[in-house]
Amino acid sequence: MGYVATKGGTEAVLKAEQLVEYFRLRGESEPIRIEQIQDQFRLAVDRAMGEGSLYAPALAALALKQSEGDAVEASFLLRAYRSTLPRLSYSLPTSGARMRAIRRISSTFKDIPGGQLLGPTRDYQPRLLNTLLNHESSQTVRRYLADFEAQVRQNSPSDGQVGYFPKVIESMRAQGIMAEAEKGAEEEEPFDVTRKAISFPAPRSVRLQILTRGDNGSLLAFAYSSIRGYGDVHPTLGEMRVGYLPVEVNHPLTGEVVEIGEILATECEMVSRVKSTNEAEEESSPKFGLGYGFSFGHGEDKAVSMAILDRVLSASKAGKLHGQSGPAANEEFVLLHVDAIEASGFTAHYKLPHYVTFQADIRVLERAKDHATAKSAESAEKHRRFRQKLALPTEADEVERIMPDNGEDEG
Amino acid sequence: MQIVWLQSPQTKIYYNASTFRHLLDSLARPGKLNQLEYPEIPGGWLDEAPTHPTRENATLNPYALGAFLSLIDGEVSFAIASGGTWLQQESAAVRWLSLRSGASLKSPSAVAFAFFCEGRSGGLLKELSQGTLLEPESSATAFYCVEQLSDTPKTGRDWLELELSGPGILHSRRLYVAGMERSEIVAINASRGNYPLGIDLYLIDTLGQCVGLPRTTKILNR
Amino acid sequence: MKQPDSLKALITQLTAPSEEATSSDREQEEDTLYNFGFIDEDSKREVRRKLLKAVAIPGHLVPFASRDLPVAKGWGTGGLQITLALVKPDDTLKVIDQGDDDSVNAVNLRRFIQKTTNLQVTTDTLEATIVQTRHRVPEEPLGEDQILVLQVPMADPLRWVEPSIERSTEMHAEADYAPIWVYMYESVVRSGDVDISSQYPVMVEERYLMDTTPAPRYDVPALHMSKTLYLYGAGREKRIYAIPPYSRVAPLEFEDYPFKTEQKPGQACEKCGSTATYLTQHYIEAKSVDGTASHSATNGTEGYWAFFCSDTSYCNKRKKVI
Ligand SMILES: [Zn+2]
Predict the structure, then answer these.
(1) ipTM computed for the complex
(2) Which of C79, C233, C269, C303 is catalytic?
(3) Interatomic CA distance for residues B119 and B137, integer angstroms
(4) Model pTM score
């Protein structure tokens, strides 16, 4: 009877649940431990935390195990879980300058205050499949770690300075080449899209929140569309850093600032020229504008894409020349379509039964067909009468004329 | 079973749900009397409930307070008036409501919820927001504490006889109100001349009977 | 055809406490795992405030925050949040999808609501205090003490002609509905009928244009001057709207092209014989030779298409009477 059976739906749902579990386990390999996912699928965990909008590596690893590695499904599980958590406190604003960085780069200047720190990146590795991983054992892992740590001990830098860098953007500000941020926006309490309904045009905090919760792939596609051709922002990477940010709250009783932990995060600042419609204004003070990107964990593509989109949208919103072209410059279009949970949910909802509406569609289709038939009959009739009026041969006569009777018809 | 419920921490959750259903039904069926539950929540919801701000030795209508509290929290703001003036931050009633709900006192034109301790606003109703054409839902909702409500005919100087019509009412409905000033009806009608803008109202009497008068309800003072 | 007992079994299993578990044990479990109704009280309050405004402004789209639920967005999260904000422990709930209590998504939503509320559930429309539905209004007229909650995918009827929310919000504000009239006129001229089959646009109280969710046109007249409160929730679109009871709801129509439902005169349900219900087509597999085919297929081997009521509970009720 099919999946929308008028009966047995309940049974089918319960059986489907069993089957999912069966397909997850039927390989009979050693069950994977959450800890292993957390350690060895680091980037998948980070992505799930980002799109799930919940910084909880162990839960993200659990979600990945449960979802058999499906990134969107894992973040969906985290989002749903997140809804059940009471909001105990709000963390205090922090700054990227306070990040204990493991990586920080800028493409604006070769030498920047504090220097470039390449850190853990695959950027300059040839992408060759490493067949040695087929035979990785606990022993090879231990040996690698021992060697690496010995190396680190030899070159260990002096204490106290490790990983803290000034921001490249700040030095650009000092040089007077950055446009100032909108006044007042900093003091405003950021909007929270999980607590309040948004409407458009939206404040920048809405944009940043939606983008950082957004789907990596969607952000990438929108940002790419803009820099490839459907847009006129030509950004440069001011700075990208990956590292540990302190999380601080006010102590509920004393009001003192207390550090309650740290999170791994990626931060990116893209800069591009602010072009003005007002020529005089542009002549007087050409500046760079800033786009900001942030992602939980180590998520460089996301942070860069988000920074590009923030820049594009700021530019388009300011009514300046650049950013007006291309879908990525349309705030509503971008913000309403980058959420993986919303997009996948609605796209997948076509799998739900639609037989009531489809029946209605059929009826409308039938009416359209009848209408078309009636219309063509009507026009044929008109045509015939017109020809009669002009004493032209009717269509039937015409056919006879074109197909001369060869006498065989009768035979 | 009943006892388990009363002592369970869930009681407030159930009270809020049940009260909401009455408030919803009241607004969906203007003029219909809904009996609210008494907000007796273990853990002392009504503990140290403020006395009436302007009437000596009188309490504030606990049903109305409970219903009001069931809708407000840290995401919204409120205003409360008694004797024709808005109460200030220092007043006991304001502090009590803020503390219980997390909602903040704001200027009347900015609040989502307003509480009138009597059946009159003394002209304050017109200070509340009626919303905007883009966001008519941003208008205020106001609660009036009245003496008594009835759907059966009442006569006498204290009673107003109102004829209601509009969405939620099949033809028309009679409502009898004691403890509400005739001039207030004029003020209410003045606040709803510009649909879809307008203020949505609740009248709650001392016995906990509740009536909703959404902005769509036409009120005729007989 | 006999209705299998699996649904009933699941319902019993979910509602009835196991013999050793006391009622307080069950509450304990409810407490520790989830809040009553899953979403937290602040979230419910937000939905409630928005519902009140929706009722006060019939047909107007009220934005709400819309929480993430353990159900995919687009799969009924709007209706679900309304139901969860409404329910109190003494409610009796019915959940249907396509008119069917046993449709897979209805089963899933019902399981979720039950797990987090321990509510009484039913398949009988008349027994329910709250009916949550997707794509249908139940056939049996609902009463004054019932609430119908509809799951909405699109919410804004102007989406047909104006995809930008910023712009369509202005159009609603100004009651500027000319573009949708043009759209409908053009489709009548082109194809002899309005292109919009389900989610037919209606005017509520002569002020707001409203999307009737993809419910068939057949269900539209049930919205006009109904005894029941209709609440609409679009979770992904983050909008709530409502039709209060006894409100005027008029489908858009032209004088020379009046509103038409899908029904064909004379068509009847092959199970209960009803000619006054919404019917959907079902393919009936041919039975094997030793099977008990209730219908003689044309040539004995092929299946055939039959029409049944989409409201299964009502159809079953009618069959029992017959
Ligand atoms: Zn039938």
Answers:
(1) 0.95
(2) C269
(3) 24
(4) 0.85
